[in-house]
Amino acid sequence: EAQVTQNPRYLITVTGKKLTVTCSQNMNHEYMSWYRQDPGLGLRQIYYSMNVEVTDKGDVPEGYKVSRKEKRNFPLILESPSPNQTSLYFCASSSETGTGVNTEAFFGQGTRLTVV
Amino acid sequence: AQSVTQPDIHITVSEGASLELRCNYSYGATPYLFWYVQSPGQGLQLLLKYFSGDTLVQGIKGFEAEFKRSQSSFNLRKPSVHWSDAAEYFCAVGAVDFGNEKLTFGTGTRLTIIP
Predict the structure, then answer these.
(1) N or C terminus of chain B with fewer C-beta within 10 Å?
(2) pLDDT tens-place string over residues A67-82
(3) How would DSSP label each residue in chain B?
(4) Taking CB atoms and an 8 Å cutoff, what residues of chain A touch B90?
């Protein structure tokens, strides 16, 4: 079954304690990205990756890091989490069409992060 | 840069009634448009997409959307809603922005169904 898997689904942590949210896809997709969802703001892109070792900032990258060492995995790292990073996070993957535009993005189930 | 506006934050409809969710976009070239649905506690599921061709697109779960270039709109419709349609709906435009194949989302419309 084609899927994007995020872990953990729920996480409560304290300010300043480094954490990693994992994301893995089994569709051999080139393109992966992270979004955060906040009430009244919709989903905003944090970081994206067009392929292995190719990553770049999205709209709200401050306080986050990513890596893409393997095609299937795209972890999101919060080196020093703060309360304003409390949010619902989604990982997504898609394949390049040749036109250079998303065909369909597949989303993970989400990770609800609370930073106290 | 592209943007998406969903003017209705919350809509309530009766079960069996028709539904229309509004979406307006801003993008300089031909847009690639999507509607996603998010059920409580779930991720986002693609309902339908428009890339080119017929401006009326059919999706899953009985939904359809019509692309109107002159109005920069991509409204989602369903002739008769079911209680299971209660969810949050997101319109998105896909575009290449300096090599970033990015989805820009609207702020969402929460749909409540009453018996």
Answers:
(1) C
(2) 999 999 999 999 999 9
(3) --EEE---SEEEEETTS-EEE--EEE-SS--EEEEEEE-TT--EEEEEEE-SS-SEEE-GGG-EEEEEGGGTEEEEEESS--GGG-EEEEEEEEEEETTEEEEEE---EEEEEE-
(4) 42-43
